[in-house]
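Dear Dr. H.,

I hope your travels went smoothly. While you were away I took the liberty of generating a structure for the chain from your last submission, since the lab meeting agenda had it listed for discussion. I wanted you to have the full record in hand beforehand rather than looking at slides cold. The sequence, exactly as received, is reproduced here:
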Amino acid sequence: MSTGAAQADSATNGLARTPFAWTFTTPLYVGSSLNPINSSIIATALVPIAAELHVSVGATAVLVSSLYLASAVAQPTAGKLAEVLGPRRIFLSGVVLVLLGGLVGGLGQNLAMLTVARVLVGIGTSAAFPCAMVLIRRRAEEAGLDAPPGGVLGGIAIAGMATAAVGPPIGGLLVGAAGWRWAFLINIPVTAIAMVMALRWLPKDPVPDRGHSGFRQVADRIDLPGILGFAGSMTALVIFLMSLPHVEWIALAVFVLAAVPTVMWELRKTAPFFDFRGLAANGALARTYLRQALTLLGVYSVMYGMTQWMEAAHGFSTVGAGLLLLPMGAVSALLSRPLASRNLVRGPLIASAVTMLLGSVGIMLLTSHSPAIAIVLVSLIFGITSASTTVGNQTALYLAAPPDQIGTASGLFRTFGYLGTITSAVIGSIVFRDGVSDHGLHTLGIVLVAAGLAVLLLTVLDRRLMNRNPNRQAGTPDTSQSPKTPHQGESSVSAPTHTITPERTALLAMDFQNGIVPLAPDADALVERVKGAIADVRAAGGTIGYVRVAFTENDWAAVPETNKAFTAVAAGKMLHHEDTATQIDERIAPEQGDIVVRKIRYGSASTTNLHQQLTDRGIDTLVLAGISTSGVVLSTLMDAADRDYRVYVLSDGIADPDPTTHQVLVDNVFPSRAHVIDTTELRGLLGST
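The corresponding predicted structure, in token form, is as follows:
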């Protein structure tokens, strides 16, 4: 072995052992804490700001809504930019904007300047979380990790939702000791530290391809019209929500006028900013977004609604109100990491919903004469809600989001969260419109009970969360029902001695795309047989998965010269992911709820999150159909067998341009690792369950 090869191998082994060293994770944690802390730290400064600037307390609500609005738009935008331009570049750009926002706010002399500062802070802090998720996902793939890096995600959870609960007590201490301006100025030293760490420790982004780095090329790749349409729609929607209970008809009209053409544009776009079709097909991701929005509605209602109530109705000082909510942040921080390290989803989400219901009932029982210990108890309960919802939904996001869209998906995850927080501010303004009182607090509690019930139903009724063996997500193979291994030399169709459980079975239609199907012998008949098998599995309640091979410009650039097969693909700029040739044959087109992944090597799980999606659905049985037998079928079968799946190969649902190679594999290779059946036998196995 050459010296260079030995060094490369040593580096790879080192990455596998310690892929997430503290030098890599620390700047991500610090950056990810900036948005939630800034979201909540302002809570205890609103009253002093109103007094010094001679405006009403209600007018200062713009300082809350402006950051939420900026963040709701900027989070997915930053994620998309991180995917296209590089996460380190976008992370550092965001840090600079936060630094500028801290200066503007600290020196601001009127409400307009403070609002500008909050917008800058909102945009800047929005870069950290999606950039962190992109960097974490890429590092996990480089290290060959199948399971989510639970410890790292736990750290992000602490830096995210858990630190939001620390905002009010920090704000109370800062405002009480040094004045409200430090709610802005605190960003200056923190961002300076974050910038130094990011420059020193985060991996550098690749140099952009000159042919794709111009403004027009970047604008097309990030779908700039889609981003602008999304920004206009979100702005109008937030203004409309913040005006309630009075209806702002102009804002509603602008929302409709901006949203309708944006949706139409995104539906036509091959690689849209907001992938409506992908979100509709990925029910697990959509439900994760909705759960996050509803739960944060509850958590932030406590942060803002109870803070106002404690100061205005109960008579606590700003420092006292902040300290009473401190247990919420402490519990969140203590629980987040150990929960995340186990890669659990359903358990924490059920705990989140139940504690949200309990805490909401507690709010309904509080009065202005309640002892401080009662308020602390409610705070503790919502601390559990905060930790469990962040951990459960964040892990669900990691598992459900397509790997190449993790930045945008993470940004939208935060956007939905901010819709929940914005709605919490709207509800607070409605229930306290006649003054902060016990009655308004109790009304808030009733609303949160309804939201908690919705979260509970979204969790317990979600079949995707009912993984019977969650340890498989953490990389533990499920060997409880491993098939008996046939001996070499069995007949080409090895009849299984058991039946198929549809709920735990997925049929994978692999590489049935427009440019590959014509290469198969008797292609039309092959597609019709696979179409029938898909219909049979659907009818039985099984899962359908689609795998296609397609490349982005970055994928081409990343193919090393050592790869014999795909060097030619990269050199010839073949199989572009937007080309018609790489789209799935319309005769077997995916439907809502199906799994769809894009790969850039032979194996279906080699460069995708397919294994994670399958384990997330509790699937332990695969039925393989694909083109070609010696390519995707062989690679996927070997990988699936090593992962301890029960594997079936449809002998009449696969094909190869070389009939001899096809027959050798079906007769002499596949039976030792899988059950080889035909589509008729598959129908019988499905019908016998």
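Two observations you may find useful: The CA atoms of residues 33 and 159 lie 4 Å apart. DSSP finds 28 helices and six strands in the chain.

With kind regards,
E. W.
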